[in-house]
Amino acid sequence: MGVSSHFEHEYSVIVKGKIAGESGGEAFEVGESAATFIPAGEEHWAINNSDAPCEIVWLLVNEQ
Questions:
Q1: Which of 14, 35, 45, 51 has the fewest CB atoms within 10 Å, i.e. is most exposed?
Q2: Per-residue pLDDT at 54
């Protein structure tokens, strides 16, 4: 597990499974069909802490 941050905003959709993590100092857990938003520059991390596979679609969006 490592901490990430990006110059772009990060949008994620959990297609299958679930993840747990932290963004902006706040813990979260999201599952199938959920969407997340992490603002540009915000440190975050996430893991699949279950035995089931997880599928995620990530989009990095630059406002420029």
A1: 51
A2: 96
